[in-house]
Amino acid sequence: MALNKYMHQRNIYKQKKPNFKELAAKFDFFDAVAIKDECGRVVLDFRIPSHLSALSKALLMNDFGLNVDFPGDRLIPTVPLRLNYILWLEDLLKSKFSEPVSILDIGVGASCIYPLLGSKKNSWQFFGTESDTRNFRLAKENVEKNDLNKSIKCKLDINTSSLDVVFGDKQNTAYLDAVMANPPFFCDTSDAVGSTTCRSLKRPPPKTISSAARHESQTVGGEVYFCMRLIRDSIRYSTRVGYVYFQCENSLVCHVIRCSEIYI
């Protein structure tokens, strides 16, 4: 888990790191995978998906009252980083806190973590799209389990624009304050492998593994083409979309584009 200087100042995990011993005492599912060393310390092996999912599940339950399941063969999001994105969105949309906020999350994944966090923490309204049928089903189950059906509307999006999915109904006059995405980084398997084999010798090896399915980490044209399509689609609906908000692999911060200021 990356807890570093780039974390948002209001991120609760910047101020206080998770206490694994307390989590193990509170949650049986966390205690079941936790490793106890000879000194009584409780640690996790972040190379094991079940350890990653237990930590994310425990943090969401302990700190946000959210009950979320994470399949071991899909992307397991780290809670501190996802909370960072929500906090940056808060800063971006702070002028609208007196009004209902509506956000589209493209590719909610199996956990649907961004809509769940944003709705639970700030009472935001979310549209969420997902192209994988299994992820879509699991995301809806996580939403229903937390009684957030009225705040989060998930839609299956296969081979089309997510914005078309939301705005396709002519009777729909919705306005989106922000469109957010954490795009697949790679264009193919060789691209993904290259990102790990070309690491500088001065950099330590990664402490975690990615459990992401292929479609969650790879897309045609990689992240650059994904973001180009997202911006292009947002231009078509520029009067109905406030901001486009996304992060690329090599960026330390998220990219924000105000749709009304895009010129072509």
Automatic annotation (TrEMBL):
Keywords: Methyltransferase, S-adenosyl-L-methionine, Transferase. One of its GO terms (biological process) is rRNA base methylation. It comes from the Eukaryota. It is an enzyme of class 2 (transferase). GO terms for molecular function: U6 snRNA (adenine-(43)-N(6))-methyltransferase activity. One of its GO terms (cellular component) is nucleus. SUPFAM superfamilies: S-adenosyl-L-methionine-dependent methyltransferases. Pfam families: Methyltransf_10. InterPro entries: METTL16/PsiM, METTL16/RlmF, SAM-dependent_MTases_sf. Belongs to the methyltransferase superfamily. METTL16/RlmF family. This is U6 snRNA m(6)A methyltransferase. It comes from Schistosoma mattheei.
